[in-house]
From TrEMBL:
<dbReference type="GO" id="GO:0005886">
    <property type="term" value="C:plasma membrane"/>
</dbReference>
<dbReference type="InterPro" id="IPR052192">
    <property type="entry name" value="Insect_Ionotropic_Sensory_Rcpt"/>
</dbReference>
<feature type="transmembrane region" description="Helical">
    <location>
        <begin position="309"/>
        <end position="326"/>
    </location>
</feature>
<protein>
    <recommendedName>
        <fullName>Ionotropic receptor</fullName>
    </recommendedName>
</protein>
<keyword id="KW-0325">Glycoprotein</keyword>
<keyword id="KW-0472">Membrane</keyword>
<keyword id="KW-1133">Transmembrane helix</keyword>
<keyword id="KW-0675">Receptor</keyword>
<feature type="transmembrane region" description="Helical">
    <location>
        <begin position="279"/>
        <end position="297"/>
    </location>
</feature>
<keyword id="KW-0812">Transmembrane</keyword>
<feature type="transmembrane region" description="Helical">
    <location>
        <begin position="332"/>
        <end position="352"/>
    </location>
</feature>
<feature type="transmembrane region" description="Helical">
    <location>
        <begin position="526"/>
        <end position="547"/>
    </location>
</feature>
<keyword id="KW-1003">Cell membrane</keyword>
Length: 620
């Protein structure tokens, strides 16, 4: 037995370099004294050896330095739980340590099984039981996956008994527990996993391991599983275990979001045409219309406007921000203004039609909550998980919120399914879950969660997700290494997008469409521009009314000047042509025609100054 253990010890610690590589614990007293001394002399030539006779408790420092622990059991097989509790095996250890239990040949199978299963329960991966049989030495190793013994005889190869499970998770069942929020969402006939589940599945596939997912609704039961070492990792990043457990860093920022019931709908006309304006705006518009009517009434006999239909049309054009010339004499200007008004009315009608259509597609509701402070100031009852409730209960800034907090006795997703149509509660969950839930269909119907709830945009209580792991977890460093690689390679982002695509999420597309809609703020700006146009058009209208005669005289004077210059040029031309006898008859005809034209202008009683030109030749 001594030579065999010595050979195994040298093979196991061959590549190790520690100050105290081997720890020998003698629990059997004088029964194993000679064997212990032989092994200590054999191994001590090349490695540091510490022998403990079990009279003094093992220190934490000793356990952390030991790379190989050889334990000699007594014939009665002492209480293993007392051993683990008294000698720090449950709190301090070296995760790469290997344990060899030397037991008497009289030890039963149940006793040997309890040794291996107890130490593996506390995180030791490589535990073997060695005892001597009449035909030779037998080594038994418990496989964590199959829960059966693997038996090796004299041809003991330490690479078979103690494989490096930290490099390959073969034969290891990884227990993962989930509290309150399930790691997957069932949608019709497909299952959508969270990004962390995709990560764990990828690691298990690469490392040839198996995952066991457990969902627990009771927080106290979860704590019991945690302290009894019945789980290795939790996917719930919101639960804070009191013990300072190690954590797996995910580098993913998350927070809490609120799903708020949709408020009652508001009539479209009231939302578009009444609410965006205050009393002063409407008063100004009414005063402008009244002034226009008064000015028309005062100057109705001056020929500018002589039809009430034309006045109504002009007031409408002024309201939409366009001026109109009420003088019906200048038909060219009227035609131009009419075409301009038609184009502007067409543009504005299309704009209003787009606004109304967008509000018909996306109905308008009453005031929506935007921040967490708005939620605190509201009257809503809140349904959330125990983690958020515990955080809020410890906060002095949100004392008002404590009486309105309700925690679900079952899974929050199931409670949400019961309450979705009642709309009694505001559900506060993690933002990644909220973004997935908001677009889910309700069973086989076309209705979605977004038909009853809306997602509040602000995230609160932001944090970086950390997966709490068991203190005896031997694979924490290995998982952290894979997590670092996955984050650097962008796999976590890819798995998040994969979760959204598989669940037929349209959150990003829907947000871009909502951003393209014309909102009430934009509509208010449009109407503000129209008010400015109304003021300018009213001023232009009053200017045209008061200065109508002056403008007409100026236009006629300009026309007379042009006509006089034209007549003078024609007279000079005719004078030159009159010297030629061939053109005398034509010149005489021109003068007579001009004389008749002047008479017609006088007959129309137009106020033309200096239009009549005395002919040079008398008309006899």
């Amino acid at each position: 037995m001594s030579n065999y253990i010595c050979k195994v010890s040298k093979d196991v610690i061959k590549a190790k370099n520690h100050n105290q590589d081997v720890l020998i614990v003698n629990l059997g007293g004088k029964m194993w004294l000679s064997t212990v001394n032989d092994i200590a002399r054999c191994v001590g030539h090349e490695n540091a050896v510490l022998v403990n006779d079990f009279k003094k408790p093992l220190t934490e420092k000793t356990l952390r330095k030991a790379n190989l622990i050889i334990m000699f059991a007594e014939s009665k097989m002492i209480n293993l739980n007392q051993l683990v509790t008294t000698h720090h095996f449950g709190t301090a250890w070296h995760q790469k340590a290997k344990i060899l239990w030397i037991v008497p040949a009289t030890a039963s199978l149940n006793q040997r099984l309890s040794i291996v299963s107890t130490f593996m329960h506390f995180g030791f991966l490589d535990v073997a039981v060695v005892f001597e049989k009449p035909f030779g030495i037998q080594v038994e190793v418990l496989t964590s996956m199959t829960r059966h013994f693997s038996v090796y005889t004299n041809e003991f190869n330490h690479s078979l008994v103690f494989p490096d499970k930290l490099k390959s998770m073969n034969r290891f069942m990884y227990s993962i527990i989930v509290y309150d929020q399930p790691p997957m969402v069932r949608i019709v006939n497909e299952t959508v996993y969270s990004p962390l589940v995709y990560f764990l599945l990828a690691v298990a596939h690469v490392q040839n391991a198996r995952l066991s997912l457990m969902i627990i609704n009771d927080y106290h039961l979860m704590e019991k599983f945690w302290y009894d070492r019945k789980m290795d990792l939790t996917l719930n990043t919101g639960v804070l275990i009191n013990a300072p457990e190690p954590k797996l860093q995910t580098y993913v920022q998350n927070g809490y979001c609120a799903l708020v019931p949709l408020p009652p709908k508001v009539p479209v006309f009231q939302s578009i045409f009444i609410e965006p304006f205050d009393g002063l705006t409407w008063l100004f518009l009414l005063v402008t219309v009244a002034c226009s009517v008064a000015v028309w009434w005062m100057f109705r006999g001056r020929g500018a406007v002589d039809s009430p239909w034309l006045l109504a049309y002009g007031m409408f054009v002024i309201f939409i921000g366009q001026g109109v010339n009420f003088s019906r004499k200048n038909r060219l200007v009227l035609t131009f203004l009419l075409e301009l008004i038609i184009v502007m009315v067409w543009i504005l009608c299309n704009a209003y039609e787009g606004v109304i259509t967008s509000f018909m597609i996306q109905p308008i509701h009453e005031y929506r909550l935007e921040t967490f402070d708005d939620l605190v100031a509201s009257h809503y009852e809140i349904m959330t998980d125990g983690a958020f409730a515990s955080k809020i209960s410890k906060s002095e800034a949100y004392k008002v919120l404590k009486p309105r907090l309700n925690t679900s006795g079952q899974q929050l997703g199931i409670q949400f399914g019961y309450e979705i149509k009642r709309q009694h509660y505001v559900f506060i969950i993690k933002c990644d879950r909220a973004e997935m839930w908001i677009d889910l269909h309700l069973g086989q119907t076309e209705k979605k969660v977004s038909d009853f709830y809306y997602l509040m945009q602000q995230k609160f209580l932001l944090y970086f997700e950390q997966l709490e792991a068991s203190y005896m977890n031997p694979f924490l460093d290995r998982f952290q290494y894979f997590m670092d690689l996955s984050f650097q390679a962008g796999l976590m982002q890819m798995w998040k997008l994969l979760a959204f695509e598989n669940s037929k999420m349209t959150r990003t597309i829907k947000s871009s469409i909502e951003a393209a809609y014309l909102k009430l703020e934009d509509l208010t700006q449009v109407f503000s521009i129209l008010v400015v146009g109304c003021v300018m058009s009213t001023i232009l209208f009053l200017f045209e009314i008061f200065f109508h005669d002056i403008l007409k005289e100026l236009k006629l004077a300009n026309l007379a000047r042009k006509l006089r210059n034209r007549v003078h040029q024609m007279a000079l031309k005719k004078k030159k042509q009159s010297k030629n006898p061939k053109y005398q008859k034509g010149a005489l005809y021109y003068i007579v025609h001009r004389h008749k034209r002047v008479k017609r202008l006088k007959a129309r009683k137009m106020k033309v100054r200096s239009i009549y030109v005395q002919p040079r030749f008398p008309l006899d």
